[in-house]
Write a structure and sequence with these properties.
The chain has 309 residues and is an alpha+beta fold. It folds into 2 domains: 142 residues, lpxc deacetylase, domain 1 (Ribosomal Protein S5, domain 2); 156 residues, lpxc deacetylase, domain 1. The protein contains 8 helices and 19 strands. Strands 11, 12, 13, 14, 15, 18 and 19 form a 7-stranded mixed beta sheet that branches. Strands 2-3-9-4-5 form a 5-stranded mixed beta sheet, covered by helices on one side. A 3-stranded antiparallel beta sheet has the order 6-7-8, with no helix packed on it. A hairpin with a 5-residue loop joins β6 and β7. α1 packs across α2 and α5 runs parallel beside α6. The protein is globular. The two termini are 36 Å apart.
Length: 309
């Protein structure tokens, strides 16, 4: 099984959920073993973040990373798309300090990746596999990870709302399953929380165009929900995105109860701290590909326009 990147650069723009500002975004091919990196445009030039768990600096209603004097918030939906589409190497150009929220799901990013095309590269894929059970619990919320031959999530949520309540969703991560069952699940929130969040400087760009909004009895959005269990599906999407901050894709079976970005981040940091004892780096050379049939070309570097200030 070989590493993958995209075939060509693609661009889009949108509104930041929390900042309310317009953000420009670009996806660029990246060389083997370079991983997922953010090229953040600043007044002082382009600064790069090749993120890991310890670069998470805030988990207030989104996951924010910071490094090299810059930060990027709301990275989880984009990273879910990157992992869901099985990309190993990608440079993400960000013209702002937040990823655009688009429609509140990962579907727009999946569309962009498909527009760019996916190509295999000339080196074996690497993954991090759980080799022992790893458990973290905080205030009745928990994440349990077990060894597995795939990335699998069993997720439970419980919200005191008639259209949410207790929901469960089981998901095996592969590209087709991600596209068919998960990528369109949108972020959700409650009318009663909107004013307080906006007073605290959050969700300045929030609207019915980029979130499912619930009042006391139902869905405010005229189109309703995309799935009867859209809230728990979106929580699974968030979990995949947060787990995407590990250096390599993770393989394991995860049971998750009522987690959010804060617990996800804490779990990731503890995984990283205990990496030698609970994770195994596996080279997938020879798995799932004919070695005589290498698709795509080797990517030499980041496009010059990204490096320009």
């Amino acid at each position: 099984m070989l590493q993958k990147t995209i075939e060509k650069s693609v661009y889009c723009s949108g509104i930041g959920l929390h900042s309310g500002k317009k953000v420009h975004l670009g996806f660029h091919p990246a060389p083997v073993d370079s991983g997922i990196s953010f090229a953040v445009k600043t007044s002082g030039g382009t600064k790069f973040i090749n993120p890991g768990p310890f670069d998470i600096c805030d988990t207030s209603f989104a996951t924010t990373i910071a490094k090299n004097g810059c930060k990027v918030s709301t990275v989880e939906h984009l990273l879910a798309a990157v992992r869901g589409m099985d990309l190993d190497n990608l440079t993400i150009e960000v013209g702002g300090d937040e990823i655009p929220i688009m429609d509140g799901s990962a579907a727009s990013y999946v569309f962009l990746i498909n527009q760019a095309g996916i190509c295999r590269q000339n080196k074996a894929k690497k993954i991090l596999a759980l080799k022992s059970e790893f458990f973290l619990q905080e205030d009745g919320k928990w994440i349990k990870g077990y060894p597995s031959d795939r990335f699998r999530v069993e997720y439970n949520i419980d919200f005191p709302h008639p259209l949410v309540g207790e929901q469960s969703f089981s998901f095996n991560l592969d590209t087709q399953n991600f596209v068919d069952s998960l990528c369109k699940a949108r972020t959700f929130g409650f009318v009663g929380d909107v004013e307080q969040l906006q007073n605290n400087g959050l969700i300045q760009g929030g609207s019915l165009e980029n979130a499912v909004v619930l009042d006391d009895s139902g869905v405010v959005n005229p189109e309703g929900m995309r799935y009867d269990d859209e809230p728990v599906r979106h929580k699974v999407l968030d979990f995949i995105g947060d787990m995407g901050l590990m250096q390599f894709q993770i393989r394991g079976h995860f049971e998750v109860n009522c987690s959010g970005h804060a617990l996800n981040a804490n779990y990731l940091c503890n995984l990283e701290k205990n990496r030698d004892s609970v994770l195994e780096l596996i080279d997938l050379e020879g798995q799932g590909v004919n070695k005589d049939e290498v698709v795509g070309k080797e990517i030499q570097g980041v496009p010059a326009e990204v490096l320009a200030g």
